[in-house]
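Justification of computing resources. Each target in the renewal requires a structure prediction run like the one illustrated here; the chain below, 560 residues long, is used simply to show the kind of job we budget for.
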Amino acid sequence: MYQVFARRYRPQTFEEVVGQAHVVDTLKNAITERHVGHAYLFSGPRGIGKTSIARILAKALNCDKGPSPTPCNSCEQCLSISSGQDADVIEMDAASNRGIEDARMLRENVTYSPLRSRFKIYIIDEAHMLTKEAFNALLKTLEEPPPNVKFFFATTEPNKVPDTIVSRCQRFNLKRITTNDILKRLSQIAESNNVKIETNALRTIVTMSKGSMRDAESLLDQIISYKTNNITIEEVNTVLGIAPQEFISNIVSAIKDGDSKNAMTVIDKVFINGVDVNSFIDQVIERLRQILLIKTCGKNKDLIDDDIDIINIYEKESNYFSTEALLYFIQLLFEAKHRIKDGANMRIVLELTILKLVKSKDIVDIASALKQLESVNSNTQIVFNVSDQPNPAKAIAQNIPDKKDQSSIISADSNIQNDKSYQDTSSDLKSLWQRIIEDIKKKDVKVAAHIREGILEKLNNDVVVIKFPAQFGFHKKQIEYPDNKKIVDAAVENITGKKLNVNFKLDTNARHSPEELEGNYEVSNRTQEINTNITSEPAVKKIVDYFGGTIVGTSKNIEK
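Resulting structure tokens:
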């Protein structure tokens, strides 16, 4: 009967395990020195050898010629363990036997001696699937098991295994297998089956396996079923439903050149050739990731597990894009995957996403954007109302004031001298009030939004009176909160140079007059003129268009 490659070429000895030398060496030394623990936890991604190592360790302990780090694989014990039929090596799938009743049954069976072997061994796969109650039922048994019982746990999600279980085990973290190790193993399998396959085709299989030896062997098995000899990269792409590297290179080139037509042509070919859309997006993400690694870390072989010729291609492509642009591209592609997963039309999502990448070729980083702004008018401050579109420059908008504060930005003269006295006149109070509001805004824009609805009614005899008209009772209440009042008191002291007693009152019979509103929200003709001039500046217009925002106000830069 035919046996699939993943089972036929499963490691039978520690020496055959690929890419897990740190685990293998530790276990071999433990067996040699008779320091084998009663419980082990093997964690790591799928298909990298967790259960295989557990089986080999079981054979090493129960082999007729053991305990030995090199089981013979010929005695009755080894053969029955390899075939999964040994009565004393019990393999359990925790996903199917996850309840407390299963754990209780296991706990009861532990008390019985092995039928014919040296040890009774429990191999529990996908251990994280056990319920909390099942784990609790095993605690005492794991802490003080019978001397002839061993527990081997395997899991892909060790974070879901309770700490009380982990602390009772020796834990080994298995790692993803490197590209070269998987490539070497697949070449051996192909050669042993008298199959000729192109190196690039094998490399594509390795890439698709994502560090899993079992996945790689299964994919090779599938491809050999399609064609038994002289397998090419094109045939591998057809069987696996993945895009040729030519498609990925053309997409990168289209993004670099801003060539929408070329990008749409590639997408059309993706659908014509039956390429899996999610796989295609993954391929583009992986290509951009490699370019990003080159861009940020240089040609580091420890980070980029690929041929030097391919790395040179990545290095050349890294010169086309900034780091911020690459981060933005990858973010958009991940968002596209989520939209497709939620049921959106695959083609529309892919086309719109790729077009966004193509149209973002002129992306600039925050520092460059700020330099362009500074070059327009070193004495003018510009406030952008940035849209909520995801892009790498979004941080520019983080400190923009609330919408109400954006209605205008008030010009202010230099700070008031500490010894200056104020007359209780309308013009003096309006000027002073504007300075106080501006000082509060620097500390907390929300407090400024509330306080500006009031009117500075009086300032004399070390007393400040701020009046709120009837319709702004809520604002008065917000200002009176201790933390907010501290900000107002500090601003008054900072502007007047004196510590004054600040009082608030609500005038239920009054509303703001047009004159008072004009005093609180002064927008001069000069401000409007600056607004017009700024909008017409090419550099500002380009930044506004890119960020998807609008200029909502300008102010004179008072810092000298």
